[in-house]
């Protein structure tokens, strides 16, 4: 039987009906003014979601990985040094990408489950009296561990160090779902993807670029053409694109942002927080803990659940897919087997999340894990019904 | 926020992705051979689902109500007598329709929550020595009360009475979801709709008509044109339709039947039984009862849940829609307020049903009903995970 | 090879992208307020398209044929007399329907290719001094011959006769494409279908009903339930529907009317006139004539082209479908073989029409008809490019 | 008015209904086995379309430009020399890309309208006795001029020179529409895009890579991560993708190839040839010429039409879009204004092409160009109807 069970992977997320319809469009001549009419609102919308006050939005037919690559190839040169903390699979991959492009990466190894170590970053920057560090890389939401780092704090640490490095932030699994303040946080490049908070299929890297990062384009010598911001900005100015753009995804992006803004960005963030908190209540009721070590680190888009001793999180993910047709995320890298991940971002409701929790419980029981069926569901129900009432009252 | 919560009304049901795509087609010339290539598999598929061995399938751009009307106008004449039991809103409505068309309806009033009273029907038929009763009307699955009547038993009762009346069965909310045996049960007209077990949007009445009922067309004098079987059959024979057919729904019907048969009709029925049984376990865990008075009457497509004294089922339905974006069915007619209804038919999974049960529980708690959150969910989880395992093992 | 050639049948018409998407919706609880929010704009829109100032709109899950049946069963009683002219297949069918419902039809036989004979109708009404004629039936646009009758003139004729019969108009292939004035013309029931000017799939009969016709409901004794206006109006008033409505088609209807009104109804009518006139120029360039005998009768939605002596229009239709994948309409009834029909209504552009004309020419050449390739196309091109310029200038 | 006029740009092409539906899918967990079930047929299909006998298929969430970049960054190192002829905008852009990535490009300047100069290439290779040329770049179909180069001949020239350079071919606007023989022609990397012959939206670069090119990965030092073949192949082998793949496009690719193979690749190529030849007949009837200087160079996917002295091709493109809602391609680079381009590739029929020709004629007349309306249409009609008959006869 086909099913329409929601997915609980931390992206791609469930695609809203209306966004699917916006993406699914007949061929449009991308060299005609019709393309500009469609592209401009998408760009303007991204600017509002990122809370940009200056700089430029860049949209690439690519993914978050391509966005990372574009961020460095447009601003840096071979041999340049960047500073990055490694505390999960996605912070690791960005570091790896930098190394493969000939950058020197000053790595601050950090236990998985923790976030960006602001004090160590500050210290490293203070120590860099010669200004060799050109950019600090930060993973806003580490999807592997469900950890949100404090980017505002990172900016304060950089300022405290008096360092002029650029700040590049991977917001792939946070932007559109959790508060993001490009201008207020002094972010130089923010990288998002279409398939998370923007609720679209994969296929777009979405970047915000500050004037400082734009200025770096002129001296950067890492080679790039497909990802070249200069070609992009020149074409955008004329209402075009330097090569054939993925028109449907761009139309869908505009529509998705319209949806986010109809709900209200703050309401979207509050909803994600509620959904996440319900999941965390369920996790506690199961007698388990998130991988994120302290509450201030809890992600509102994904929870990596540490499984009991002797249990294997990957077994749950496999069973859920095979027996119940429900997709969760496995643990990656260092936490492979030790966690399973519940994605709770994008177009999702209390009701949908409850079905995910109920499924996880059935799998746990099937696998002989110590669990009381309905326990996590009940904890989440109690939280959801209470907080939903509060939201309704607040709306009056 | 838009949601993609499933619906739990007893039809229209959640439409599968692939069926939606089959329905959503560009314009096709219905006078071309392409239409016949699309129509014939739909007709043949209906024949298999109804378990017909003879007679004809009729597909009308209409609904179940139109199907009822077509059944009587094509076979009966003003003043004819039909026999019917009334034990719910839908059995009532068919009776009302007959009366409005000038038929005399011999009504066996039956308490709501019970099914077709085989003994009384047999007695009535035996008493009709002059053969005035031309047809017996039966509602296979009374959607208002969640009661399934025993049509095989009804046939036996008719045979025991030695009566030659035709047997017309409303299978709108059973066909495609629960076993139906047109030939074996000696059904003369079976009426289905597109929007229940066939998982389509509303818009088609689907009928199986026995040779005996077809023969009655010649003498029936109730007026009809739009619904006239004679025009239909004449056109069908030529690969056409007597007027503009709803081509997309017909394409969708063929696709839906393909889905049912890919799963296997018996597997489809077993799945509905499992889904229903899980719901009933939850109802019991809540300390409540189905409206259907005995287990042999339990419907596998809809459960009407009797609410506790002092509670109003309609409140739950309203709250679920407004606060959680989930649709249940209200009580209708005699049981208005006394029940709420959970539809569990069509393209539905364990996981989806659990989200409905969890929602109902939240509403009950919100309304101050005596309920332990998670209790019904846990009962259903236990049943689902156990029976799902059993199904998997049986498949090896 | 699949193709996306447009269809040139006189309905169903090519469905606009946006209308298809509006129709293709997930299941919505038709008993919830969400249904009313969707239904009311559709009803209000129909009222504007029909130019109604009073009375009610009725929307039935049916087709034009069902609309005809609903018109008479809701207002008339067995044995009642109606007056109708027969001059094509569709006027014939409505007459046949009346007869099958036990009405007496006073028929004015009229040559195919002509329209409603106003003088004869006036004379018949004048002769009916006893007022036995309860309704006059008129086919606004006879789809079989491409003839538009003068409904305003018919109203004047009825008034001149001083007769109080109701006026029922079949506007199935005119409404939404050619001017229609329900109030100004004193129409008592107007019947439209979803699949012509409304550009939807088949599946809805759409009726405007005057207060006079509504009053007739109370005395009408023709049986009806599925089509009963009384049930409809009672349910509509509560934001509902008497049975399961085809929600997607209703959503699509609202969207289609929005499209028509975005373009402007007058602009829609002007576009249809231009498209039709281009087709007629092509027909003249081919040395052929429309079936409609005089220009005042020319339909703007369909042209029935009289084929040269010794040629068979059906051959062209068959060849076009088989060799070029293009659908035209065959001649029906009296003009079978003598015409082929080009539908030019709905979502259609100059460019699409030209492809139809070019195809017809290729078929004619293939069949050995006397034709110069490109001749009709050139005539239509000349007209389209000239009138398109004029339209653009007028818009400034 | 919305329109559903076909587009006549040389890509993106009109997307078939069934391909759109395949692309428009709900979220699927790309780390589940379901992804592999979807990905493998797409990869296998590409292999068949490219006529590969060995090597690997690489699919990147990108465009043709990204495909070019991937081709060189995976096989070459900074300072390496490549040989390329420049005879149009797309051959120019690939050269530019190489230069921006630090390659030395030995350019053979060739007049626009001509194809790859086999003799000069052979001479250049012969002169390169030290083997500095690592790769020869060839644009199979130069979209700017409508010129098809002889890749089989290029291979013969390379062999005649006894040179071991790799052969990289841009087949973006040829593959899937014109014969392509990766194995027989000894192509080392073939680059295609989703939005041309594969009839999909833009968003995929599709590459075939020979064992020789795969071997070059190990020594190539141009930086790459997003485009790294090594990561791709490692992930593919495990049924996965190195980052989030565009699942819908991949599903659509498999479906598109199914369509091509249902028609038969040879039939697809023959259809494109017929469509192109009809366009060329029209061009001749207009008294104009293709930009491609000799018939052996004529592209079957796009015709760049040289406009009469004193006329500007861009005016026609602008007018067609604004007045008739039809998209043609403008002239680019050296031939800006001197040509307009008619794309005739992808899902297109005779009938659709005729509408494009008719539109072009109207525009020419509107612009005062010397043209007889209907002349080009007639020439194409004559050819289409004749060759269509021949095809049907051949099929018997």
From TrEMBL, chains A, B, C, D:
Coiled coil segments of this chain: none
Positions contributing to substrate binding: 341
Signal peptide: none
Annotated keywords: Aminotransferase, Pyridoxal phosphate, Transferase
Residue span(s) of domain Aminotransferase class V: 30-331
GO molecular function per UniProt: alanine-glyoxylate transaminase activity; L-serine-pyruvate transaminase activity
Cited InterPro entries: Aminotrans_V_dom, Aminotrans_V_PyrdxlP_BS, AspGlyoxATase, PyrdxlP-dep_Trfase, PyrdxlP-dep_Trfase_major, PyrdxlP-dep_Trfase_small, SP_NH2Trfase/AEP_transaminase
Any matching Pfam family: Aminotran_5
Residues modified as N6-(pyridoxal phosphate)lysine: 196
Keyword Aminoacyl-tRNA synthetase set for record: no
One of the GO BP terms on file: glycine biosynthetic process, by transamination of glyoxylate
Cofactors (names): pyridoxal 5'-phosphate
NCBIfam families on file: AspGlyoxATaseBhcA
Family, as annotated: Belongs to the class-V pyridoxal-phosphate-dependent aminotransferase family.
Protein name: Aminotransferase class V-fold PLP-dependent enzyme
Organism: Pseudotabrizicola alkalilacus
């Amino acid at each position: 039987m086909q099913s329409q069970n929601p997915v609980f992977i931390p992206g791609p997320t469930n695609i809203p009906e209306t966004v699917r319809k916006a993406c699914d469009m007949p061929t449009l001549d991308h060299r005609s003014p019709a393309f500009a009419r469609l592209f401009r609102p998408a760009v303007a919308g991204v600017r509002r979601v990122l809370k940009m006050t200056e700089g430029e939005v860049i949209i690439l037919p690519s993914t978050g990985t391509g966005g990372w690559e574009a961020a460095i190839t447009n601003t840096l040169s071979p041999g340049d040094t960047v500073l990055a903390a490694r505390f999960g699979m996605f912070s690791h991959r960005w570091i790896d990408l930098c190394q493969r492009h000939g950058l020197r990466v000053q790595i601050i190894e950090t236990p998985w489950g923790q976030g960006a170590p602001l004090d160590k970053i500050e210290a490293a920057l203070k120590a860099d009296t010669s200004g060799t560090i050109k950019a600090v890389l930060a993973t806003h939401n580490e999807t592997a561990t469900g950890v949100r780092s404090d980017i505002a704090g990172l900016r304060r640490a950089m300022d405290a160090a008096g360092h002029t490095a650029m700040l590049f932030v991977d917001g792939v699994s946070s932007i559109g779902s959790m508060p993001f303040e490009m201008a207020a946080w002094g972010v130089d490049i923010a990288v998002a993807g279409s398939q998370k908070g923007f609720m679209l299929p994969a296929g777009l890297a979405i970047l915000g670029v500050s004037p400082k990062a734009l200025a770096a384009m002129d001296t950067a010598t890492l080679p790039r053409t497909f990802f070249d911001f200069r070609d992009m900005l020149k074409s955008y100015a004329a209402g075009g694109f330097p090569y054939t753009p993925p028109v449907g995804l761009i139309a869908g992006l505009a529509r998705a942002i319209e949806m986010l803004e109809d709900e209200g960005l703050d309401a979207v963030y509050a909803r994600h927080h509620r959904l996440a908190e319900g999941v965390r209540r369920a996790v506690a009721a199961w007698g388990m803990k998130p991988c994120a070590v302290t509450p201030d680190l809890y992600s509102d888009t994904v929870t990596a659940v540490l499984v009991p001793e002797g249990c294997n999180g990957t077994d749950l993910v496999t069973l859920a897919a095979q027996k119940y047709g429900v997709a969760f995320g496995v643990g990656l890298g260092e936490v492979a087997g030790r966690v399973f991940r519940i994605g709770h971002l994008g177009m999702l409701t209390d009701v949908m999340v409850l079905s995910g929790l109920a499924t996880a419980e059935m799998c746990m029981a099937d696998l002989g894990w110590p669990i009381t069926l309905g326990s996590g569901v009940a904890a989440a129900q109690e939280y959801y019904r209470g907080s939903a009432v509060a939201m309704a009252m607040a709306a009056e």
